[in-house]
Amino acid sequence: MVLVTLEKALTFQELLANGVARLGIRQYAGGIGTGEPLIRFCSTGLNNPADLPFLTLLNTICIISLRSPLFFEGELSVSLQLSRYFSGIHPPVNSCLALTDTGHIPEFLIHSLGNSQMFLFASIYDEHLLESRLIGLIREKTELRTTLSGGLVNIEGMGVVITGESGSGKTSCALELVRRGHRWVADDVVAVEKRNDGLLYGRSHGFETSLLEVKGWGIVRAEDVMAPSSIMSESRIDCIMEMVEEVNADKNRESGKPSKVLKNIMGVDLPCVSIRASRDASCPVAEMESCIRTLQRLRR
Known about the structure:
six-stranded mixed β-sheet; alpha/beta; 2 domains; 18 strands; Udp-n-acetylmuramoylalanyl-d-glutamate--2,6- Diaminopimelate Ligase, Chain: A, domain 1; about 20% helix; about 35% strand; Rossmann fold; single chain; about 300 residues; transferase
């Protein structure tokens, strides 16, 4: 059993806001608790009846797997044991039971909750992935920090996160943009922080020295492939550009044009732009620059 104490408490509603898809939640049931904030979560395989009291810890998220050996003792046995714990708790438990490896909550579990007010949800992820995503989500909600997969470049004063599949040309485009006078911030992983002004800021993740992977060269220091004046330690993040092989046929996702599609990151809506990845060695940097100028005009 793993027990983690949260550095800053938050409610179920705050935790799950914009997080249902990220946690792989397919069904939820039960109450919404007493409104008191969570202070910890625990992960247990629920391997024997001795683990059941962990489910009733106040202000706790408890992760259990549907593959737990205890469930194979039979629904009636587990249901009776759960009901015994939940029915004897006063006041109602303000806790959350996260069931993994399934998109469906067994009826006997729903009935076992009784009047406990415990919130129950089913996730398609296994306990390890769900635990990892919960930690990441909690960190975003409490520390206002997260990471994005992609590169960060400052184009004409606007911070642009370039995303896309491996091999789509993200780093090549970033280097070409630097050659055209723009500035580089991060490659591969962007550490993002929401500050008191309500805006997002990004920088390189995990290293004091900025690194990037260049095709044919491997991993090198940014200073080895560009002038120091072309490197920024951080930049405000203003939009996301996604490198794709085929642009969505949706009229709102036309290549190289700001769309009505927004990506919400820690409560901040960022415009998303689809950029058609070139099949040859060229990079669509002129298209990216044009898009940024359009965004700048729209903001005036």
